[in-house]
Every structure is written in structure tokens, then in C-alpha cells.
Amino acid sequence: MTQTKDNSIKILFRFFSNVLDEWTVETMLADTVDAEKGFYKLDSIPFYAPVASDDIVFAEYDDTEEILKYRNTVESSGNSTVQVVLIDTTKEINTIRDKFKDMGCISEKLNDRYFAMEIPVDKDYIPIKFKLIELEDAGIISYAEPWLSQNHCYD
């Protein structure tokens, strides 16, 4: 089992990404909820995996991979994940991230053109969605919604 200095556990996710249109591997940090049952609470924002931070997942040690491997989500946190790609490279990605931070959404940057953003369970997604649409219509970003909780889905 891979354990980090701060007692977080690494969990491997292997899945087909509809956004990337390919099989993808990602590791995420988690805190142990109940090691005997294999329950872990995700402690990071996924870049691609179809889960959200604070979800409680079931993972078990995989001898082939030599790491805890995600099997399924036990309890959804209600948080959502949105992926954002910077299209207009004359813009600074941290400026875009700050717009959403001001709206209550934290994010993790992968590189100078891509970040994953968490929509907390208690946030109204409508103004955030409008900002995403506004920035996309202006040609500044493109975005995907790989994991929207029921709290953030609108018909």
C-alpha cells in the first residue's frame, strides 16, 4: 500500500475517459475511513477520474498493480468536478482560476492550459455555469463536466 508522509493513501483509478476518448490512469490521495472495509475518503480534485473530492470509495489492494485500486463509489459527497482547458493562450490560467475561486470553487492546475475545478456541494452551480459559458463563448476556455452531482444537475 502506498502511503504518503501525511498519512494519505494513494488510490489508483483505471477507467475509460469520454473526454480523452481513451483508457486513462490516475492516482488520487485519500484518507482512510475504514481500512478493514476498504473505505477511503478522496482528498484531492480528480483531473480525469469520474469521482469528486470527499467521495467515499471502496478500494482494495491489487497485487498486479501493487497499489490500492478503486472499485466503486460508496457515498457521493455531492461535490462536482469540471475540467477547464485554456484556449486563448494570451490569457493567464491563474487569472481564470481566480475567477472561479472568487465564486467558491477551488481547483488544481495540471499545466499552463488545464485545470480541474471542484464545485462544492453547497454552491449554486447556475452562476458558475454561466461564467463557464461566458468564457467559452468568448473563446477563452473550453470545459467539460465529467462528474456533476445531483445537487448541480438542472433539467
Sequence of strands across the biggest β-sheet:
1-2-3-4-5
CATH class of the largest domain: Alpha Beta
Identify low-pLDDT runs: 1-5
N-to-C span: 42 Å
Structural class: mainly beta
Q: Secondary structure elements and their pairing?
A:
Layout: E1 9-17, E2 22-34, E3 39-42, E4 56-62, E5 67-75, E6 80-86, H1 93-101, E7 107-111, E8 114-119, H2 125-137, E9 141-147
Parallel strand pairs: 1-5
Antiparallel strand pairs: 1-2, 2-3, 3-4, 4-5, 6-8, 6-9, 7-8
Description of the structure:
The strands form two sheets. A five-stranded mixed barrel has the order 1-2-3-4-5. A four-stranded antiparallel β-sheet has the order 7-8-6-9, with helices on one face. It has helices spanning 93-101, 125-137; strands spanning 9-17, 22-34, 39-42, 56-62, 67-75, 80-86, 107-111, 114-119, 141-147. The longest helix has 13 residues, at 125-137. It is mostly beta strands and 155 residues long. The chain is built from two helices and nine strands, in the order E-E-E-E-E-E-H-E-E-H-E. A hairpin with a 4-residue loop joins strand 2 and strand 3. Helix content is 14%, strand content 43%. It has two domains: 9-75, no CATH class; 80-152, Alpha-Beta Plaits (2-Layer Sandwich), CATH 3.30.70. The model is unreliable at 1-5 (pLDDT under 50).
Give a short overview.
The chain has 155 residues and is mostly beta strands. Helices cover 14% and strands 43% of the residues. It has helices at residues 93-101, 125-137, and strands at 9-17, 22-34, 39-42, 56-62, 67-75, 80-86, 107-111, 114-119, 141-147.
